[in-house]
Amino acid sequence: MFGLVRSSAIRLTRTPPKLQLPCSQQVAHLSYRRRSRGRTNTGIVFVPTQEAWVVERFGKFERVLEPGLRFLIPVIDAIKYVHSLKEIVIEIPSQSGITQDNVILHLNAVIYMQISDPYKASYGVEEPEYAVTQLAQTTMRSELGQLSLDAVFKERQALNNNIVGAINQAAIPWGLQCLRCEIKDIALPDKVVEDMQRLVSAERRKRAAIMESEGTKEAAINIAEGKKRSRVLESEAEMQEKVNLAQGEASAIKARAAATATSIEMIAAALQNEGGSEAVSLNVAQQYVDAFGNIAKEGNTVLLPSNVGDPASMVAQALSLYKTVGQQTTK
Prior knowledge:
By secondary structure, the chain is α+β, with helices and mostly antiparallel strands. The protein has eight helices and nine strands. The termini are far apart.
C-alpha cells in the first residue's frame, strides 16, 4: 500500500546542491542504530516504547521482544538487533539525470521510511537503508528520463508517487515501508536557467504588448462611441431647436393674426359710430405723410409725386384713395 506523498517547493539554483555524506557513511550511521548497540542479556530486560528487539538463541532467530518487561535466558539468548519503529528520514544524495528533451538536472530528495516487520528488516537484506537509497536513486533517474523539462516541474507529484510505489514494491521482503517522498532541490545548468529567464521575459513582454494593444483598441472604441453619441445628441438637440423655433413662430403668427383681426374688428366698430369716418380719414392722411418722410431714410433714390410741395393736395389725394377703397369694399 502506497504511503502519503507530500511534495516540497522546488527551488531553481544555478549551482548543484552541496555534497552530501557518502552513502557508506549514512548506511553505517543507520546500521549502528539498528544493531544491538551493546544490549546485554541480563535475564530481565525492559524494552522501550517504539522499539523491537530481535533475539537469537544459539545463533538462530528465536523471537521479537515487544515493549515492556521481558525475560531471557542468560548466555543462551542474545539480543542481536534493536530496531526503532519510528519514522526514519533518509536523505537521497544529489545526483544528475537527463530529461526526455536531453537536459541535465541535479536533484536530491528525502524519503520517510518505517520498519513494518522487524524480522524481515533483520534478515531480509543486509543493509536495508542502503538498498532503499540506491533504489530511490535509480527510480528517480528512470522517471526523470520519461519527462520533459517543463513536465518535471508540473508533474513532480507524479514523480514522487512513482518513487514511493517502486520503493514499497521492492521493500516488501525487507520489512520496510516508504511513507512519503519529497524532492528538495532541482538544480539546472546556468545556460538553461538563462534561457528560462529569457523565455519568461519574452512571455511577459508578449502579455504586455497584448494588453497594450487591447487597451488601445478599447480606447479607440470608446472614443468612436463617444463621438457617435455626441453627434446623435447634437442632431437631436438641433432637431428639437428647430421644432421649438417652428412652434414659436407658429404661435407668433397666430398671435399677430389674432391681434390684427381684433384691431380690424375694433376699427370696423369705430367706423359705425358718428364721426368715425372723419377720424379714420385723418389717420390715413397722417400715415400717408409719415410714409413719405421715411422713404429717404431707407434708400438713396426717392420717387416723389409732382405735388410734393402742396401738403393740402397730398392729404386730399390720400383721402380720395381711402374713399375709393372704402367704396370698393362696400360693393
